[in-house]
Automatic annotation (TrEMBL):
Keyword Acetylation (UniProt): no
Protein name per Swiss-Prot or TrEMBL: Glucose-1-phosphate adenylyltransferase subunit GlgD
Keywords for the protein's UniProt record, in alphabetical order: Glycogen biosynthesis, Nucleotidyltransferase, Transferase
Domain Glucose-1-phosphate adenylyltransferase/Bifunctional protein GlmU-like C-terminal hexapeptide stretches: 283-356
Alphabetized GO MF terms: glucose-1-phosphate adenylyltransferase activity
The family this protein is said to belong to: Belongs to the bacterial/plant glucose-1-phosphate adenylyltransferase family.
Residue stretches making up the Nucleotidyl transferase domain: 16-158
EC code: 2.7.7.27
Organism: Paenibacillus wenxiniae
Main enzyme class: transferase
Amino acid sequence: MKGFVGVINLDHELDQLKELTYFRCGAAVPFAGRYRLIDFALSNMMYGEVGDIALFVRRKYRSLMDHLGEGRPWDMDRKRGGLFILPPDWHDPTDTSLGDLQHIHNNMDFFYRSSGDVVVHTGTQHVNKIDYKDVYAYHLERGADITVVYKKVDELRPEHGACRRVEVDADGFVTDIHQDRTHNNIYVETFIMSKELYLEQVNYCIAHGKSYFFRDVIQSNPNGLKIAGYEYTGYNAVINSVESYYSNSMDLLCPDNYQQLFRENPVQTKIKYEAPAKYLEGAKVSNSLVANGCVLGGEVENSILFRGVKVEKGARVVNSIILQKCTIEAGAVLENVILDKDVQISHNRTLIGDNKHPYVTAKSTSL
């Protein structure tokens, strides 16, 4: 098998999670009690044996750099290859590229020096467990120039509205890519193609004043490329709004959903060593994900608590997501709430949101 070159492209991922993306990009948003959204894309690449990964970033990536470090949890801290965090070069006087093509143009050396021959391109707004080896085998079997990955969903949800749709024929080849909201084949922002063809198409787009690789090469397909569609049948959550973040997080409290995402190939993340969660006398905790370092004295129900959360005696947390190091003082009541990290909720304070539109606080605030 030829080697893979990974591209995680954050350029098109806008900061759509309101308070949760005030101080970080979407890829760095915490998820499922101990992870960040980018962990799932990186873990998929690790299990797919992707040797070199380019992470295209443009804004608010300090938190992301702190989380990733040298890439050790994903086996990317290597002497040769590994993880490269690549912002665009704003000072290249020869640069005429636009959109996400600017990242590729400014970082051509990464592709020339990488040892892999096949590009795996993805983002972080789709949380899934795609097997890139299976996708590549399908790609070879179909003799395709490009293979895009899609998920056929049984129930269309609000977050699917912004997703592109993929239509395929009986032989598995793509006949159309569009945004008809009634169509169930959701493009999961992942495709595979040879590095040689990838760079060839990048140069073609720049020479013709194009801006975005997927739209101008794959969706428009001006050069008549042979595009196959691979149907991914596993777990897939789309995180592109506060509402979708909340609903998909709450879905993980269902054991079947949790097992689908975490049963095989454990998701890797930055390790933080803390004591196990401590349950004080009188604490009541039910149907919740509780991370290490938490100290719980009150009532927690149907909620997700990240590392180091403190819930004092007499406090009540229901249907809520509480990020790292938050403190909920005695007598406080939280329902349908998302607290970003380091938030302090004062004595007897009540915050209640709607189960479709949760109440959200930015990090390091006191209420």
